[in-house]
Amino acid sequence: MSADRVTCRIGAMQAALRRGLVLVLSSLMLVGMSGCSAAGYYWQAVTGHLDILQRTRPVPDWLAAPETADTLRERLRLSQRIRDFAVAEMKLPDNASYRSYADLGRPFVVWNLVAAPSDSLKLKTWCFVVVGCVSYRGYFAEADARAEAAALAAQGWEVQVYGVPAYSTLGWMNAFGGDPLLNTFLFHHEGDLARLIFHELAHQVLYVADDSSFNESFATAVERLGVRRWLRTQASPATRVAYEAHEARRQQFRALTRQTRAELDALFVSRPPDLIARKAEIMARFRDRHADLKASWGGFAGYDHWVAQANNASLAGQGTYDDGVPAFEALYERADGDWSRFYDAVRALAEQPVAERRRFLKEP
Length: 364
What we know:
Layout: H1 3-29, H2 36-55, E1 57-58, H3 59-64, H4 70-88, E2 100-102, E3 110-116, E4 126-128, E5 132-134, E6 137-139, H5 142-154, E7 158-164, E8 181-182, H6 183-186, H7 190-205, H8 212-233, H9 237-270, H10 275-296, H11 304-308, H12 312-322, H13 325-334, H14 339-350, H15 354-361
Parallel strand pairs: 2-8
Antiparallel strand pairs: 1-2, 3-6, 3-7, 4-5
Helix pairs in contact: 1-2, 4-7, 7-8, 8-12, 8-13, 9-10, 9-12, 13-14
């Protein structure tokens, strides 16, 4: 069979898969929806994902193409080393995900919306077919996310819209080529590229419907544990040093936001008559403490925009990814660093009632 016929057959198979995906996702739109706004949301999700598929090509095709820039070719090769490491060293799924690449021509693949009441750190949830209820809502167009945020803000919610470099289809799209590498994260620092790939693949290991905190804390623990091993065994000394400086700042900032969430939680539980004024004091202290950290970092301004817009929604949203990580890292240590044993232990926890999972996440 000639190469041209092979290419045509592959193209026909991809087209058939994409038509099948349209039918599957369109059918899902008919399940559990109420009104035009729900239909519109699902449709933007379908068309947004299909647009990514249309732009995606296998990594070997990009490497072989003479027009591929050397910088892109080098990053794609690095990504495949990281992907192989994820399988061989971390026992993460060996499938089609992150074996292809797409340039979307924009800085983020989706924009997430989170919302919380003005007197609580309990995030608003949205419920979807298949994945259940989650504490964020993703949009492929920033304008759509901000329009929904404005509508919620008008109802009294505190909101945040933030760009997301990657998202996971939880392995369900591997038959259609899997989740691709994207320009939105491929050129990140080597450590951050590894973190992101490990995080998204962790969602393919385990996903518990209706439990964003459990899912994201697990995936964040996997990414942190994995990137430490990658940097220790695969990266250059200069890469390790640069990443460790970056990570030290990140951990100090997370400690500050955890402290602020704890102060707000205590305030919201006690509900004093001057709650609004005391909340303003807590947020002012948060910004003052960030200013002190920034000075200790030599003026590093990477968190300035986030701090300026910080509110209940953004603080609670960060907690979803952060608060349960120590419990998972301790579980990994109890598994003696054996990834398979660790995943089995996490799967066993996932079978427990939600109250038991909440207790686990609060373990020191």
